[in-house]
Amino acid sequence: MGFFDIFKKKPAAAGAETGPQAGEQTGSQAAAAAGGSASSDTAAAAADERGQQELNAGLERTKTGLFARLARAVAGRSTIDAEVLDNLEEVLVGSDVGVETTVKIIERIEARAARDKYMNASELQRMLREEVAALLEEAHATEGNYGLDAAPGEPYVVMVVGVNGAGKTTTIGKLAAQLVKAGRKVWIGAADTFRAAAIDQLQVWADRAGATMIRQEMGSDPASVAFDTLQSARANGADVVLIDTAGRLHNKVGLMNELTKIRNVMAKVIPNAPHEVMLVLDGSTGQNAFEQARQFTQATQVTSLVITKLDGTAKGGVVIGISDRFHIPVRYIGIGEGIDQLRIFDRHSFVRALFGEEDHEKD
Fold first, then answer.
1. How many CA atoms lie within 13 A of 352 on its CB side?
2. Cα separation of 246 and 149, whole Å?
3. For residues 317 and 93, what is the distance between their CA atoms, to the nearest angstrom?
4. 218 in helix, strand or coil?
5. Which regions of the chain are under pLDDT 50?
6. Which of 297, 314, 322, 343 has its CA nearest to residue 171?
7. Are 259 and 299 in contact (CB under 8 A)?
8. Helix (H, G, I), strand (E, B) or coil at 277
């Protein structure tokens, strides 16, 4: 986001030569400014196009599987009838959208088809695109803080949770790198003290990102690590704190209780911390990701989601289902191994990547 200078005209001094007043532009200056603005707009448009192409590539396997099934579902059909809707339901469930969300989409499309009477396969695709976009939650992302609602004054604390293997450590590293790139001071707390490898891996990511990491010995109290991290972050004027936690087995109540302890300790250092509890889910696990989301939302107040590994799976529909089912915004999606391939989630770009480039208004 740019900053705009506001110039006020000043009256010309007595006897001064007539000409451009302070803040006024000559024709050449105006042309140069216009050219600069046009160039900036062109660069922004090119960046958006590159971003969309990368997202398209990352979701290619999901798109290919979805379109192949859709093509079979509507083959030889000129109207949307009960059989087409049954086939569509099978397609969506097979794409890991989830039963509850699939039923909701089918009911909406059925109502529209009954109202408009005649609809063909291309209109079915358009309706599907619109209904999916409507179901997805907004991420409320602020690009200046790479998707976080951080504000000056107090460190913005994010507690990252999820099972082992979902991509928590990688997500923290990539997020830290993007925040540092945006000029933010980032502290990372290595509160996964059950595995020495987890601490070492996080240190590698912190060093790569240019973030400060607070760690203790393996087996230390995770809440103690979180406490020390927040104290250090507050004393050193950090902007964002990312707290890693152990890869909780979502069916282990005792381990889940540890999350509550960490939250309570952090709130003693910074009131209302953590400001965000971010659940990382592996998109390639399909329906198992739903179960993890259910267990974690019961155990702690999850406020945002990260869906990782979407580039290696045809189960990208899980993003739609989880967002709708739990009414939690998807903050980021992972579409590759690169440090810049943790993307701020934009539902419209996501829908375009799945269903094509047809324009539709943002609501």
1. 19
2. 25
3. 9
4. coil
5. 1-24, 359-363
6. 343
7. yes
8. strand
